[in-house]
Amino acid sequence: MDDVYAIEMLSITKRFGSLLANDHIDLRLKKGHILAVCGENGAGKSTLMSILFGLYEPDSGIIKKDGAEVKITNPNDATKLHIGMVHQHFKLVDTFTVLQNIILGEETIKEYRGHLNVFKRCFNWLNKHLFKIIDYQRARAEVQQIIDQYDLRVDLDKKVKDLSVEMQQKVEIIKMLYRKNDILIFDEPTAVLAEQEIQGFLQILRNLKKEGKSILFITHKLNEIFEVCDEITIIRKGKSIDTLAVKDTNKEEVSAMMVGRKLDMNQTKPSPVTGNEILRVEHLTLVDPNSKKRIVNDVCFNVRAGEIVTLAGIDGNGQQEVVYGIAGMKKSQSGSVFLHQEDISSYSVRKRIQAGLSHIPEDRQKYGLVLDYSIYENAVLDRYYEKSFSKCLFLNQKSIREYGDELTEKYDVRSSGDGSTVVRSMSGGNQQKIIVGREIERGVDLLLAVQPTRGIDVGAIETIHNLLLEQRKAGKAILLVSLELDQVLALSDRILVMYEGEIVGEFTPDSVDKETLGLYMTGAKKDKVNAIKENGHE
Predict the structure, then answer these.
(1) pTM for the whole thing?
(2) Are residues 9 and 61 in contact, defined by beta-carbon separation less than 8 angstroms?
(3) Which of 154, 185, 168, 243 is nearest to 54 (CA)?
(4) Which CATH architecture has domain 277-371+445-535?
(5) Which of 35, 274, 384, 444 has a CB 3.0–4.6 Å from the CB of 380, allowing a cystine?
């Protein structure tokens, strides 16, 4: 018996100007299976999924659902065909409640249940012409049934802005299920999750598969593919290279097919040769302005030249806020930050940058880029006022273009055109490369690197790991924040574990394993290091 395909995308081609994003790509998703779609940043994965969801129309090729050809020209067409998508950057309204977000666009309108026709006519007229009276009680019952069925626990009355990233992702999944979708597309769903949260998400995928859902899973993380997927379709430079059964392949083969070469993800890291203290944080305390709760509580540590110190912990335990305090993005209630023995606690963000600080932020779109600016403009975003790039009141466009071209070539930034391309149109991984290149090329002594490999492919991860180790070798001080324990153990010289705003343990990679780190990160084991608190270092 022939395989029954839930979705077939045959010979899909899509151009953006001179860029051939999808070049006669074939993709087939079997019913009740999980198919991984993987490839380098800019390989065409998100474009292909956007075509299936109706955000783009293909230039040529056909789409079949359950064996019958279908036409998808917009997201409404996809919804009618029960195709849903969770985007890498969630599409939620922050000021709405969870319930309001889930039913948005699919509201159940309250019906008149009385017996008097005159009131019924009046009620229906108001519903049609003035405002919709939403039947929240019925909607809540339907959503609660989904929550119970799939064990997706979330508070329906909370506003989205008050939810963790993990909870926001659950809201997106419930949104898809509320619309009775049987084809589910996940675009880099674990890029924003901590390691412990990822296991919870993978279990959700298993549960959805048991319920008969067919799932397309875009990810760069090979461990996840081999845990939950049935098949892998590999795309490289806009072309489908092959589709393999997970049981018939291995991580090395898949990674080599993705980038076209064999990768070495196990870089040998020489012992650190540390120099002078570059960064010192003393008794740093930050308070949440809304809850008045301490989100960073009396944190002390230092980073020396030639070492990588990592703040590790589950997302939301204060690591990001420590970086905000160091970079000047959030005002601390108490404590001091020293750079080269100089107290920069009262400095503005720009003055801290000028003092010798570079920052790769966690949220590239919110803090790292101006999305409607070009590659050229983003390349000099924190340097445009320097003499190299401006004179008097005017920007030196020639110098900016030359620098931008060097940056894109050196860091393999791919776009549909040259450096004048607006970064909003680029893949998340290529946006990340712009930021990493820009911050490293500034050549300063302290680099704050927060989730530097989030949402990028295995080849780019290898490149960024090598770049960080090169910076370390060159005597730079690096403060790394990462949720990925493999990365933490591979790159760190010292690991500081944070839990509920405090440093609860300090380790070297050769003195700890992932299981022990996990215990400290979840608060199951607390070992406050007094030396850190008292002296800022061991």
Answers:
(1) 0.72
(2) yes
(3) 185
(4) 3-Layer(aba) Sandwich (3.40)
(5) 384
